[in-house]
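Hi C.,

You asked whether I'd gotten around to modeling the 513-residue construct. I have! Everything is below, sequence then structure, no commentary in between.
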Amino acid sequence: MASETMIQNAKAFLLQESPDSKLNLYDHLCAVMHKVLENRTPNSVDLLESLSQEVKTSKFAPPTDPSALQDTQSASQQVELANIQNKLFEKPSEDAEPEAEDEVEMPLPNLMDTAHYFEAAGLGLGREETFRIFLALKNLVDNHTLQSVRFWGKILGTEKNYVVAEVEYREGADDEQEGEEEEGEESRDEDGEEGKEGEDDNLPTPDYKPPPVIPKEENGTGCNKKTYFVCNEPGTEWVKLPPVTPAQIVCARQIKKFFTGNLEAAVISYPPFPGTEINYLRAQIARISAGTHISPVDFYKFEEDDEDDSDGEGRDSFVENVEFEPPRVQELIDPSLSNWVHHVQHILPQGRCVWVNPAVKTETEDFEDEEEEEEREEPDEPVPEHGPPLLNPISEDTEVDSMPAWSAGLTSNLVPQYAAAVLRSNLWPGSYVFGLEKKFENLYIGWGHKYTAENYSPPAPAPTQEEYPSGAEVTEVPDPTVDEERALQAVQQEQLDREAEEAEMEEDDEDDD
């Protein structure tokens, strides 16, 4: 028979509490046996599991927080994005006083009206996403002092996409932005100078001088005429893109990289790109805008007091023609494409819209390199670059792989009398424009790459630089033969004997004196 000690040990074991439910097996078995004897349920052995569950349920005390009854799961990305975009639909507070529409013109465009015409052509992002972008543009207008706002398009990426807004600041509103950019550049220059001061002054300096840096165009001119904001999803924070430099545009023409959706991602390519993805994105936006932003002919005109050139070359601004008479839709889709013009300046091979002479130096550079320039040969004067003028017809665009640069059509061939004209760029796939009466709009939805007939291949590396100049001193010559060495030794010996005889004769003459 079991001893009393063994029984006490077994009971102590059954009385151990569970750390989760705070119950012990001894009390639970007693409660189950009490329930069986109380109800006198037939076939109790078959119902033992359900009886045990009923006992546990009767002792369960729900927590005060109802959410604790459910398994805790982390919110998905869709739920987090929905919570962010939910703020777009919040109504403004009643205390906020609306601005007078007469004093300030509302820069927010009617994006839903524009999307209607693209939707008729089978283009766009869908009504729901378009409306969210519409609300995101409204937030951009509320937080910045802008003169105009336009939905530029959407650039796709491997991880995230970019929603792009094109804006113009009001006069004087962008001075603060320029000041912040200049302060950032000055701080970077100071850091670079401090790093140079710590270097050893005794290190040799190379004779190589890099080519002169082409200066970027000022804000409000050329490639930086417009300012761009981007965000990954409507409702997230708008990020302002920095001004683009000629070096970034020149390098962007030589590479082809997919966007990741991360503005701080490195652009690993050859040639090395001078910047991160935020700079590469800005360079591609400038290239796409210069090549695909078009408008009906005579919608814009040059100012009457601007008499630089009669053909438009050298001009960088225009005004809207109030006397514009819209062409018929059939004229807009004419195969000659003579009723559409580019209203964004062409980007020259230099990476600027207006060519600058890199050979012209400032007074400081002239003073520092004055002595070196005297010894060096003067380089050849660079040839100025010229491109198509502003408001140039798209009929003069270069063909793309034996295809016209643009393809024109109607939004509906069934009811052409109510259809709008739609043009598609064959050079930049994803760029579209519609035109109907006095309305037109440009839109880009794509990967940000230019069309190429052949598969892309990176440019070949530059030739290997010579380590030293070749000459007679370092040029290897064939070894002499034995006969040639003996003849050379004989000549050298004769010369030594002759010099020795001349020395003896000079000593004899000195003795005679």
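If it helps when you're writing up: The mean pLDDT is 83.

Thanks,
B.
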